[in-house]
Amino acid sequence: MNEKTDSQKTESQKTPSQKSDSKLNGRFSKRAILISGLVLIAFGIAGTYFATSFADQYESQSDRTTDNIVLQQVGVMKLIAQEDSFTPLRYTATVVARRKSQLSFQASERVDELLVDEGDRVQQGQLLARQDDTAIKALHNAAVARKKQAAAVLAELKTGPRRETIEVARAELDRFKAQRDLTKTTLKRQLRLQQTRAGARQEYDIAASEDQAMLAAVGSAQQRLKELETGTRQEKIDAQQAAFEIAVASVQQTQARLDQTRLTAPFAGRISKRYIDEGSLAQVGSPAFEIVEVDHLEIRFGVTLGVARQLEVGQRLPFSAGEEKFIGTVAQIQPTLDRATRTQEIIVDVDAENTNSLVDGQTVRIEFATPAAQPGTWLPTEALQRQVRGLWSVLVLESANENRENEFAENESGKANASTNANPRVARRDVELLATWGNWSRVQGTLEESDLAIVSGSSRVSVGQRVAAQTVKMDPPWKARAVQLSDRRGQ
To answer: How far from 268 is each of 18, 100, 120, CA to CA, in Å?
Structure first.
């Protein structure tokens, strides 16, 4: 209250002229502030206009001089068409000999001689080792003798009696007939004496007995001669034939036992192991040697049912051992699945000229390609850029439609560029990684068939940047061979 009273007193003490000057000063201050604000607004508008014009002029000048600027060089490639896309497959397999056997003696005898050693190459039927065969050879010789005896008797029976024997039998019959005539005459004489009671009864009985004996002898001689003239009975020949066959079987049995004392190679190959020495007692079934058929090698590996359906017998498949490259032929596709691995076994025959470079038990890599069953394309892995959440991206050149849209936008803003088509901009495509193969990756996503992927220099450019592109020829290392091998049958 005191302050207001003092100010009122001071205002009441001012003269009229002082009051008039004070009013003029207030009006002038308001007008100056208004003019200053208008001037600042004008300067702001003018600055904005000049800045925009200068930026447009600078950008136009930059666009007009683009041809004189050295653009970043990048290498691009066309995407592999779906019909030319293959899925490469790689399997680890083992080289195995088509035949490998452990050889053993079938007789328990002392080993007398070893004719081969480990690493030796042998031919089919070649003698490898021999056992002591003294006892078995003696049995064999006895069997051979019995066979000869039975054969001789059989031949005699089949040929029949000799002519001389028949003549002897006939002469014997004649002698018995002559004696019969004598005994018959004597019997008649004794009979007359008995009738006249001139002879003794005993002499008559003796004569009668001798006559009966000679009658029997004549009958026997006649039967003997008949048999000789008729020949040997068939039943007797059959019985002797059976005896001869028994003798033959005995010889074969002893010959088999004799052969069992000799160990021979069942097929051509190389001796990989030797288990016995000279002087040792070989047991039946115990291995003596291991032989491997090195001239016929195979590769066995399992594939899924889908892959097996794309293979055919006679198809050629490449494989490698270390740095060496080989090729083989599909020999068999097993008709059943392995219960444990659920795979089908493929058997590949190694070409004969490559068998000297491979050994039984060696590990090899089989690499071949099958037509791709799912959408996607192969790109060099260096063309991929990692994004978030497991996604990847690929830098490409803007497509024709994107270039036309950019040109339209530039023309609308008055910034058209004549070098747009010659120096395209960089665009990005999001993709999903499906598989990798060496330095190549299979992807699918927003890529279009007409896209040109940046495969070299992608780390030095960014999206929207204009670049100088050069097309490079980059095919997967398996593509050319896959295209050839996919249709080769029995070449």
So the answer is: 140, 11, 11
Q: Does the pLDDT of residue 245 top 60, yes or no?
A: yes
More confidently predicted of 150 and 189: 150
- At residue 480, the pLDDT reads 52
Nearest Cα to Cα of residue 291 among 110, 132, 126, 130 = 126
Report the DSSP beta bridge partners of residue 425: 466
Distance in angstroms between the alpha carbons of the first and the last residue of the chain: 122
> Is residue 382 within 8 Å of residue 460, measured between CB atoms?
no
CA 331 to CA 297: how far, in whole Å? Answer: 11
Of the ranges 221-225, 347-351, 394-398, which one carries the lowest mean pLDDT score? 221-225
User: Which of 355, 344, 246 shows the shortest CA–CA distance to 303?
Assistant: 344
CA–CA dist 416, 307 (Å, integer):
54
Residue 399 CA: distances (Å) to CA of 78, 190, 241, 442, 468:
12, 153, 100, 22, 15
The mean of the pLDDT values for the chain is: 79
Show the DSSP H helices in 125-162 as ranges.
134-159
- The rounded distance, in Å, linking the Cα atoms of 380 and 439 is 6
Report in angstroms the alpha-carbon separations of 234 from 161, 186, 238, 436, 463.
14, 43, 6, 87, 111
Nearest-10 crossing angle of helices 201-230, 163-196:
160
More confident residue, 53 or 99: 99
Q: How far apart are CA 314 and CA 234, in angstroms?
A: 62
Residue that is written with structure tokens 């115990």 in the block = 286
Residues with Cβ within 8 Å of residue 203, at least 6 apart in sequence: 190, 193
Q: In this model, does residue 378 exceed pLDDT 70?
A: yes
Average pLDDT of 239-247? Answer: 93
Q: Which of 379, 367, 483 is nearest to 434 (CA)?
A: 379
DSSP summary character for residue 461: -
How confident is the model over 32-43, as a mean pLDDT? 71
